[in-house]
TrEMBL record:
InterPro entries: FTHF_cligase-like_sf, LUD_dom, NagB/RpiA_transferase-like. This is LUD domain-containing protein. Gene3D superfamilies: NagB/RpiA/CoA transferase-like. It comes from the Bacteria.
Length: 213
């Protein structure tokens, strides 16, 4: 990579980490998913239960099989049939897990964590409930400010996630958000974590990789 591109990339990450720390979050940087997975595994040492949101980023770390092998109970609603009582219960258990693993739609260089959910299980569980919350973020999700975060959600994350779920929403056709009234809409709850929530410790892991939508 060109040295100036590399320097700019690291400046972006460093600025984001400084802003997150000023806002009361723990902010860590890892160059690879393997290093991030190793750190998360250490953080899980005193945790019996682990909740996981609907995140491709965390799954890409291949951390879940390791946690299962270590005897942790994993609350992963993706393994259950959507709409069943078991799936609903699993989403609820995520909110009181010892460790909650999630990603984010966008993290700003000014230090905010921004998410838009269909159900709200992620936006709920990352703000209150679990003993520890870890949010894993690829460098592709770092944006300058809140306006850019919403733009990312509406121009990238929402349309791609809708397509991946085979939703019949207008953004799948246009490539950008139409603020639809579709019954298959996936954007129903928006959360901005401006500062560390009073009763929840949040660790943001920034990764020098492009991961997730
Ligand atoms: S609100 Fe509708 S159109 Fe916009 S991103 Fe969400 S699902 Fe797509």
């Amino acid at each position: 990579m060109d040295e100036f591109v590399q320097a700019h990339k690291m400046k972006t990450i460093t600025t984001t980490m400084e802003s997150l720390k000023k806002h009361g979050f723990e902010a860590l940087f890892f160059a690879s998913r393997e290093e991030a997975a190793a750190h998360i595994f250490e953080m899980a040492a005193d945790c019996a239960t682990v909740g996981i949101g609907g995140t491709l980023t965390v799954r890409a770390l291949n951390i879940l099989p390791r946690l299962e092998e270590a005897g942790k109970t994993i609350f992963d609603h993706w393994k259950l049939k959507p709409g069943t009582p078991e799936e609903l219960e699993c989403r609820k258990r995520q909110m009181t897990a010892d460790l909650l693993l999630a990603s984010s739609n966008a993290v700003t260089m000014t230090g905010e964590i921004v998410n838009r959910d269909g159900c709200g299980n992620r936006t709920n569980s990352i703000t209150f409930g679990p003993k520890k919350v870890v949010i894993v973020v690829g460098r592709n999700k770092i944006v300058p400010d809140l306006d850019s975060a919403f733009a990312r959600i509406e121009e990238v994350a929402g349309p791609i996630r809708s397509a991946s779920l085979s939703r019949k929403t207008p953004c799948v056709a246009t490539g950008y958000c139409m603020d639809c009234d579709s019954p298959e809409r996936i954007c129903n709850v928006t959360s901005i974590i401006h500062r560390k929530p009073m009763l929840t410790k949040i660790t943001v892991i920034l990764l020098d990789e492009e991961l997730g939508y």
